[in-house]
Write a structure and sequence with these properties.
alpha+beta; N-terminal domain of TfIIb; GMP Synthetase, Chain A, domain 3; 3-stranded antiparallel beta sheet; 3-stranded mixed beta sheet
Length: 141
């Protein structure tokens, strides 16, 4: 294995189901059977991976900036082409923050740092998919 390499496995479990085991040893079911939806599909996991990577960066930066974030949610949408292999060509991430006295500049800076410097998942998909972002701040009373 190359230096810094990661190794995961995907084992066929029958009936278009697979068990993915991550480098950390955690397992997740993967469903590739059309509309059964008993577990995430590989494409759904990619959407969640992009969102989770940037969410982890943004909340960490906001906490370091001592922002009073009470709730934080990232909504992600993906756009795919119609022809096979039906790849994603764009992702849009909307960051929704709820808290007290949240600085718009702090949030915008955190999102930009994640997008351009820290999020390795976004950096991996960016050569073939455009990533756009937006945010909402909801002030708590």
């Amino acid at each position: 294995m190359a230096e810094g390499g990661y190794k995961a496995t995907v084992r066929f479990a029958g009936d278009e189901l697979f068990i993915g085991t991550t480098p950390s040893g955690n397992s997740v079911a993967i469903d590739t059977k059309g509309d059964r939806r008993s577990a995430p599909s590989p494409l759904e996991m990619l959407l969640v991976s992009v969102a989770a990577c940037t969410a982890a960066d943004v909340i960490s930066i906001m906490q370091k900036k001592r922002q009073d974030v009470r709730e934080y949610l990232v909504e992600i949408t993906g756009t795919r082409v119609d022809e096979h292999p039906r790849k994603f060509t764009a992702f849009h991430l909307n960051h929704i923050v709820r808290g007290r006295g949240i600085s718009e500049k702090a949030l915008a800076d955190a999102i930009q740092l994640s997008d351009t410097k820290y999020c390795s998942v976004a950096a991996t998909v960016r050569p073939t998919a455009m990533i756009t972002t937006s945010y909402e701040i909801n002030e708590l009373e």
